[in-house]
């Protein structure tokens, strides 16, 4: 067994699907652990991997362990699997929890890599930051990069930056969904049908993001391209600046960064 995924929730299954869809590993090479797999009524699709309700049994059978549980339960999970963990690679996506914290609860021989992905990984448009702990080997980093690049793009960063990444790209999809929803509401307010308003809002956000990626131009330049003298856009922008949308987004990201740090201390 090459990989054990502990926690088959939103992010655990998102990465599982990415790993399988991109042929990084086969279902027979993966075991997933989650208490819910023992429940009769769970309705998740695990795509044919083996599953168990026992983290210990899963870890025993794999060389690489993906930790996809909530930060609040991570310590307990690590303590439960410690005796089966010698010489293994641990990949943790838990917000806020440092590689040092993780190592404290594992045998000396373990290697640890921290990753901060985001949910657009489900459609192969994720962005993931990768912070290798001291003992991680080049092969370990390559393996993790392969997973992250399979579901979007992986970038290697120093660990002291990972809380900032968590607040920006880890949490960021939620902020963009709020913006999309608000734009659609604005369309409805102005007489468009809900379906049309939502389609226009989504495609505007997706297209604008694609423009930044494809042209490499500064967002300010692209904004100026939309903005005719005395026209509609500059009148809209005046409201955005008056109400402080930039400040709101900066504060939101900063609060999320702070919360990530707090989770690491809990
Ligand atoms: N949802 C997101 O957008 C992102 C989440 N993360 C991180 O991913 C981790 C998982 O988050 P989500 O998938 O959103 O949460 P989730 O609640 O969807 O999934 C957590 C899973 O862990 C399982 N679980 C609970 N206790 C367990 C235990 N003792 N042993 C094994 N499994 C157990 C739960 O049954 C659940 O299926 C968190 O640490 C979070 O910080 C990181 C980046 C983005
Ligand atoms: O909200 C959270 O704590 C997780 C980490 C980043 C995105 N979701």
Automatic annotation (TrEMBL):
Swiss-Prot/TrEMBL GO biological process terms: L-proline biosynthetic process
Binding site for NADPH: 55
Chief location of this protein within or outside the cell: cytoplasm
Record-listed NADP(+) binding positions: 6-11, 68-71
Alphabetical list of InterPro entries matching this protein: 6-PGluconate_DH-like_C_sf, NAD(P)-bd_dom_sf, P5C_Rdtase_cat_N, P5CR_dimer, Pyrroline-COOH_reductase
Top EC class of this enzyme: oxidoreductase
Domain Pyrroline-5-carboxylate reductase catalytic N-terminal: 2-96
Localization in the cell: Cytoplasm
GO CC, one annotated term: cytoplasm
Pfam families: F420_oxidored, P5CR_dimer
GO molecular function: pyrroline-5-carboxylate reductase activity
Domain Pyrroline-5-carboxylate reductase dimerisation: 159-263
General function of this protein: Catalyzes the reduction of 1-pyrroline-5-carboxylate (PCA) to L-proline.
Protein name: Pyrroline-5-carboxylate reductase
Organism: Halothermothrix orenii (strain H 168 / OCM 544 / DSM 9562)
Protein's gene: proC
